[in-house]
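Example (one chain per record):
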Amino acid sequence: MDIIETIDLKHRPFLVERFRQMHLNISDYTFANIYLFRNVSRYKILTKDCGTFISAYNRQDQNYIMPLDNPQACSPDTLRHLLNECNFFFPIPEEWMPFFPENEFCISFCDSESDYIYLTENMASFAGKQYTRHRNHLNQFFGAYRPSTQRLDVTNSRDAMTILQHWQEESVVSASKTDFAVCAEALQNFSELALWGIIYYIENKPAGFIVGEALNSEMFCLHFAKASKNYHGIYEFMFNDAAIKLQSQYKYVNLEEDMGNKNLRRTKSSYGPDRILKKYRVSLRVGVQ
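Predicted structure:
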């Protein structure tokens, strides 16, 4: 019998352990992303006889299934049954492709859903031609400001919320069309979600923050980076500083997808990603039952 559950904080131990065992580099497979976007993506845990899955909906209102284990654990009949109930499996890593023979399944991907992966040491050094513009902005920032940093926690979360509210006020779109509410909930549940973050001050005024979590033993995933536009070069500074702090523990930094936003794509591409990680969609071929 199928069991369907709404995502809640009580599911954190189970999902964190499952994601740890999967050891994937895909940013979708973190508890914070699942929990914080539970209403946007309508995430639900779906338990079947062969294993556990997450049912979700994308921005095009298409229903998809996130496997929480290697698909080999399920019989071909179960996989086909699942795909008859939804549009596709997603996000599927390239290493799982052999479990979906091309004569039965259609494989596709969308560039806007791909993750941007960076070598942490490159982000920490800003060395090389790729980073010329970012180094210039960083030098201009240090020439104008004397920033200070603190680990983000309950003692300064109100300052982070002030930054987020100011960031939203500077935005050209309404809060309903940004990640304001999701980011605010991340700050409110920072400890419960076991997030890591840094808050930045300029002349003792809260100016920016970065929030993320470990994706696996080699990769750190940055979920949010918010700052005031008043401080030229502050984003270069935050990315560089966070990478410096993370490089002793993580080889890679994942800045997630660009969601088809041209400005985000341009910005993330400018930091010289080590690779663009494709997230595959897997659906049944027409006529296959």
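Caption: DSSP finds nine helices and 14 strands in the chain.
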